[in-house]
Design goal:
By secondary structure, this protein is an alpha+beta fold. It has 2 helices and 5 strands, in the order αβββαββ.
C-alpha cells in the first residue's frame, strides 16, 4: 500500500520531468503547483507566444485503473477550469483577448512521455 509521501514524491518527479520536457519545447514555466483555496491545484502553467497552457501531470508506476486520461473526470475538468479562472483573475497580465488558453495532460509511464493537448473542450 502506498503512502501519501510516496505519492507526492512520484508526483513531484513527474512534474520535474514534464517541466524539462516543456522547456525543451520552448515553453516558459509561469507557475508550478498553483493552488486555489481548497479547490485543488494546477500542476504547471506555461506560456509560449500567445498561448497559455494549464498542464495536468500524471506520473504512473502502474497501469492499474486505466491510463492517465481516465483520471480526468468531469469533476476534475470543472476543478481545473475554476482554478485556471482564479489564476487569470489574479494575474491580469495573462487575462487578455490576446491570449489563447488550453488544458493539456502530460502522462509519464515507464519513462515514456505522452502529451495530450486540449483535454477540455
Amino acid at each position: 500500500m502506498k503512502n501519501s509521501t510516496d505519492n507526492r514524491e512520484v508526483g513531484r518527479k513527474g512534474e520535474d520531468i514534464a517541466c524539462d520536457f516543456l522547456k525543451e519545447k520552448d515553453f516558459e514555466i509561469i507557475k508550478r503547483n498553483y493552488r486555489f483555496q481548497r479547490a485543488g491545484e494546477i500542476d504547471i502553467i506555461v506560456k509560449k507566444d500567445n498561448l497559455i497552457v494549464f498542464v495536468e501531470v500524471k506520473n504512473r508506476k502502474t497501469s492499474d485503473y486505466g491510463g492517465a486520461l481516465y483520471s480526468i473526470s468531469n469533476r476534475k475538468k470543472r476543478t481545473l477550469r475554476k482554478i485556471a479562472y482564479h489564476f487569470l483573475s489574479a494575474h491580469p497580465q495573462y487575462h487578455s483577448k490576446d491570449f489563447l488558453y488550453r488544458f493539456d495532460l502530460i502522462s509519464i509511464f515507464n519513462g515514456k512521455i505522452e502529451w495530450i493537448d486540449d483535454i477540455i473542450r
